[in-house]
Structures are given as C-alpha cells and as structure tokens.
Amino acid sequence: MKVFIIVLAVLIVLFCALCAAFAWYITHGKRQTMQEAWDWEQEHVRDAKELTRDMFTDYIVKGSKGEDIHTSLLPACEPSNRYVILAHGYTDNRYGMIKYAVHYRKLGFNCVLFDERGHGENAKEPCSYSVREVDFLLDVLKDTLERYGKDIVIGLQGESLGSATVLTSLRSGIVRENVRFVVEDCGFADIVPIILMCMKMVHVPAFMFGPINLFARMMYGISFKAARPIEAVKGSRIPLLVAHGAEDNFIYPWHGKEIFEAAEGPKEIRLFEKAGHAQSAVVDPDGYYEMLKAFIAKNV
C-alpha cells in the first residue's frame, strides 16, 4: 500500500509538472528581436525596401498602469489627418506590421505601430491571447487621439494575435466612438481550438486542456477560455474587413468566416489563394493594396 501511494504521488507530481510546463510553453513563445523582424520584412515584403529606420519616429506611450509601450510613427507619403494603428502577431513586434504599413501610407495613412504586451521592446510578460493585450491597444488609441488631434480619421488593423486584440477592443466605448474601420487579418475567433490543435501536434491528450488552463490561471492569472474575440464582434457596427490566407493551416480560414458572420455592420471578406498564415499581403501585395483601397473608399 505504501509503495502504491508513493507511485501515485510521483505520478501526480509529474502530471502537474507537465501541465505547468505546457501552460508556460503556450504563453512564452520565443519573441523575435527588433532586428529579426526588420530583416524578415526587408527580405520578404516587396515594398519594404523603400523604408529606412530613420523614417520611423519612435516614442513611448504610457499604459494605464504606468507601463512603457514602445511605439513608432511611420508617416504617410503625403501630409494627412488619417491614421491607422497596426497590431502585430504573437512572438513578433511592431516591425512585423511593415507589410501592411507600406500599403496604408500610400493610401494616405500615418501608421502607428506598437509592441503588444510582452513583445518587442516592452517588458516581458506571458501572452493572454488578447485578454490583456487589448489594454495596450486602447492606451495607444487614446494616446493617438490626444497626440495627433481629436479630428483625425482613425482605423485599426491587426494580424493574428493582433487581429484578436483589435476585435476584442470592439467592446470599448473609445473604439466605438472614434474608430472608422477595422481590418482583421488571419485572426482567431476562439483560441481554444488552436491550443487543442497544438497539443495534438506534440502528443498531449485533449483531456489535459482543463488542468493546463487551471495552471495558467494559477501561475499567470490567464484563462484561455476567455480569449474569444468573436464575442466582441457581435453587436459592433464599425465597418469590418476580414482577410485570411486560403491555405492557412495554423489559424484555419473558418475562423475568419465565423468572425465575418458574427459582424453586424458593413462587412467584407476575402480569402487569398496560395497564402498561408499571415502571408496574404506578402503573396499578393497588389491584390491586398486594391482590397484596402476599395474598402477604405467605401467606408471612410
């Protein structure tokens, strides 16, 4: 009996350790450095070569709890009162949104790029998959309105995690009152199916999701079940453009379709053929530009 209790105790400890380790793994993906993100955009994004570092004006936005949010302004090609805030994906940083900024600045938008919570040059934190990240976006939006004027035209675009963050912000009054359009690219409707898929890929059984989520809550105060951006879309009347790679095998296109269906205001959706995750603007830059141009002309 004593041996059985010891063995059982060891198994419980190992199970708990595995759950804790996977909770850490899900929330602490290796972040790209600023240089790595810059180099990737320069190598893969056709029009990124038109940009140099000195074209960006860097500044720090103070978060609601005193956090430093590292931010850059890339001005439009011509002086303009139009601004777009760009929110990057998981493990990336603000330079990862250059693939979209090159289009917006040609469309007359000043581009505000910021590091999401725990990313880039910000203080390191675990990822909550939009639940906490939305606070930084709202802080940057508030700062943008104060810094550049209440009369500006402003839009939001996100990529992957950034899209989830942007969609989650649709609950906020400052967004409903000031944002003229939203573009979400390859965002998720609900993070849980993606976590379950990742667990399956590394041979972690699905029944462990509950304990893993419990450990994430105990260690970091994060519940993955709360990361459901689709809930914030319901009831929003802000014009929404959904873009997704038709060949995205990480965040499957059905996420974009569900987000599109949930939106109640003016909305459009486009799937980009031969594009994988976060690759639509890279695979078809001309098509992406024309899509943005038409959507903005119709809704701004």
Short synopsis of the structure:
This protein is α/β, with parallel strands linked by helices and 300 residues long. It has helices spanning 2-27, 34-44, 98-106, 133-148, 161-168, 173-178, 192-201, 209-220, 230-233, 253-262, 280-283, 285-299; strands spanning 57-62, 68-74, 82-87, 109-114, 153-159, 179-185, 240-245, 267-272.
Largest sheet: 8 strands, mixed
| Percent of residues in beta strands | 15-25%
What spatial order of strands do you see in the largest sheet?
1-2-4-3-5-6-7-8
The CATH architecture classification of the largest domain is: 3-Layer(aba) Sandwich
Distance between the termini: 73 Å
Radius of gyration: 20 Å
Number of strands: 8
What coarse outline follows from CA principal-axis ratios?
globular
When the domains are counted, the total is 2
Average pLDDT reading:
95
CATH superfamily of the largest domain: Alpha/Beta hydrolase fold, catalytic domain
Please mark out the parts with pLDDT under 50 across 5 or more consecutive residues, or reply none.
none
CATH topology of the largest domain, which one? Rossmann fold
Q: What order do the SSEs take from the amino end to the carboxyl end, as H and E? A: HHEEEHEHEHHEHHHEHEHH
Q: What is the tally of helical segments? A: 12
